[in-house]
TrEMBL record:
<dbReference type="InterPro" id="IPR036366">
    <property type="entry name" value="PGBDSf"/>
</dbReference>
<dbReference type="Pfam" id="PF01471">
    <property type="entry name" value="PG_binding_1"/>
</dbReference>
<dbReference type="GO" id="GO:0009253">
    <property type="term" value="P:peptidoglycan catabolic process"/>
</dbReference>
<dbReference type="InterPro" id="IPR002502">
    <property type="entry name" value="Amidase_domain"/>
</dbReference>
<feature type="region of interest" description="Disordered">
    <location>
        <begin position="1"/>
        <end position="29"/>
    </location>
</feature>
<keyword id="KW-0378">Hydrolase</keyword>
<dbReference type="InterPro" id="IPR036365">
    <property type="entry name" value="PGBD-like_sf"/>
</dbReference>
<dbReference type="GO" id="GO:0009254">
    <property type="term" value="P:peptidoglycan turnover"/>
</dbReference>
<protein>
    <recommendedName>
        <fullName>N-acetylmuramoyl-L-alanine amidase</fullName>
        <ecNumber>3.5.1.28</ecNumber>
    </recommendedName>
</protein>
<dbReference type="GO" id="GO:0019867">
    <property type="term" value="C:outer membrane"/>
</dbReference>
<dbReference type="InterPro" id="IPR051206">
    <property type="entry name" value="NAMLAA_amidase_2"/>
</dbReference>
<keyword id="KW-0961">Cell wall biogenesis/degradation</keyword>
<dbReference type="GO" id="GO:0008745">
    <property type="term" value="F:N-acetylmuramoyl-L-alanine amidase activity"/>
</dbReference>
<dbReference type="InterPro" id="IPR036505">
    <property type="entry name" value="Amidase/PGRP_sf"/>
</dbReference>
<comment type="similarity">
    <text>Belongs to the N-acetylmuramoyl-L-alanine amidase 2 family.</text>
</comment>
<dbReference type="InterPro" id="IPR002477">
    <property type="entry name" value="Peptidoglycan-bd-like"/>
</dbReference>
<dbReference type="GO" id="GO:0071555">
    <property type="term" value="P:cell wall organization"/>
</dbReference>
């Protein structure tokens, strides 16, 4: 990224943020994290990400009308994920590229993402995962890497549309049914198996055999991304089957 030209052809221009540093251990981007801004005004959200006082940033910013700006060079460590974890890695900022999508989010009543905006997000994400060879299973929401602490980009984010564009891992969610379910307080082998599957997919969860508050948060995060019809932290049959199908269809990745 030079002062004038963005690294992605999808971005129209550079709007530099001072909020970035070195990636730890010379890491390269191997993950893509999507966010919503969660602020009422997109111009203010952009200014905040470029204000040294905020200590937050992202590599790219996508307006509601689909315009894209680059704020931080891709090789630099932007400050978007905070306290996060995935697949055993805790310094998500050092190994990821972050995209902030202007949307008022849950505080604003969770308005749908406009088509033009999603088209830009899909094109930008496709460009980034292609250039950096980022595996489909490492295109995630902030809520996936910070369950309980973060809920963006929210359960209305159209992950299937990104998948159609060749971005991210997705299977059609299993149908809701009245089968057996597990929830807070349950214990035993089925809980251990559930936690093991969530951890195998990449979620940070302790395999204790006890369905505790943390497990509930992780189940909610999983649902928000992969089974958004009901986000309640209850591991129902549809949730468990969807998780199983995702694990079974994980693309083989050449690291
Ligand atoms: Zn976020």
């Amino acid at each position: 990224m030079s002062a004038l030209s963005p690294e992605s052809p999808v971005a129209s221009k550079v709007f530099p943020s001072p909020n970035h540093g070195e990636r730890k251990d010379g890491q390269r981007p191997s993950m893509l994290i999507l966010h919503y801004t969660g602020m009422p005004d997109e111009g203010e959200a952009l200014q905040w990400l470029c204000n040294p006082v905020s200590q937050v940033s992202a590599h790219y910013f996508v307006f509601g009308d689909g315009r894209v700006l680059q704020l931080v060079p891709e090789m630099r460590r932007a400050w978007h994920a905070g306290l996060s974890s995935w697949d055993g890695e805790a310094d998500i900022n050092s190994c990821s590229i972050g995209i902030e999508i202007a949307n008022t989010g849950h505080p604003g009543g969770l308005p749908p993402y406009p088509d033009a905006q999603i088209e830009s997000v899909a094109a930008l994400a496709k460009d980034i995962v292609t250039r950096w060879r980022i595996p489909a299973t490492r295109v995630l929401g902030h809520s996936d890497v910070a369950p309980g602490r973060k809920v963006d980009p929210g359960e209305l984010f159209p992950w299937p549309r990104l998948h159609e564009a060749g971005v991210g891992h997705w299977v059609a969610p299993s149908a809701m049914s009245d089968g057996r379910f597990f929830s807070r307080g349950d214990q035993g082998m089925p809980i251990e198996a559930l936690q093991a599957m969530l951890a195998m997919y990449g979620y940070e969860v302790k395999i204790s055999g006890v369905f505790d508050e943390d497990t509930e948060k992780v189940v909610s995060a999983f649902q928000r991304h992969f089974r958004p019809e009901r986000v309640d932290g209850v591991a129902d049959a549809s949730t468990i089957m969807t998780l199983r199908n995702l694990i079974a269809t994980r693309p083989q990745t050449a690291a």
